[in-house]
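Here is the promised in-class demo. Please do not try to memorize the tokens; focus on the logic of going from shape to residues.
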């Protein structure tokens, strides 16, 4: 029984001060039209360890990170975590406001996370690798 409780505990996550501030504002902005999405994002932000922007480890998922992960539903996937206006599933860019986007935030390579899809089903994903955009790549995307 004690083992099952350990499996259900959410992993520790870290988020940069800048991402925390921007995502908190985003969650508040969508609260009226999407309360469940807002609440889930705010819950993740509340439990996160907020660190200086330059103190986030390279293998931690942050906004703009490209993440290779294995969902319990099938084959490995690679996505880039973006703000809603940049989302494009055909290009592998998923919004932070999706359940899987929120679940990925702050995880490190090697961590697993349970998450609930919009249809209410529980899933698990395991982060395999995280790549951050270089400053040059970030400027090209802007």
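The designed amino acids, position by position:
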């Amino acid at each position: 029984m004690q083992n099952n409780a350990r499996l259900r505990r959410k992993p520790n996550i870290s988020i940069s001060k800048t991402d925390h501030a921007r995502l908190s504002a985003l969650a508040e902005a969508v609260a009226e039209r999407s309360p469940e999405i807002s609440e889930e994002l705010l819950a993740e932000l509340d439990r996160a360890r907020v660190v200086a922007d330059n103190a986030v480890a390279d293998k931690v998922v942050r906004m703009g990170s490209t993440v290779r992960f294995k969902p319990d539903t099938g084959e490995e996937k690679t996505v880039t975590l973006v703000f809603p206006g940049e989302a494009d599933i055909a290009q592998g860019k998923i919004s932070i406001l999706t359940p899987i986007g929120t679940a990925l935030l702050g995880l490190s390579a090697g961590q697993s996370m349970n998450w609930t899809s919009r249809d209410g089903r529980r899933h698990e994903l395991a982060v395999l690798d995280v790549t951050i955009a270089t400053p040059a790549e970030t400027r090209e995307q802007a």
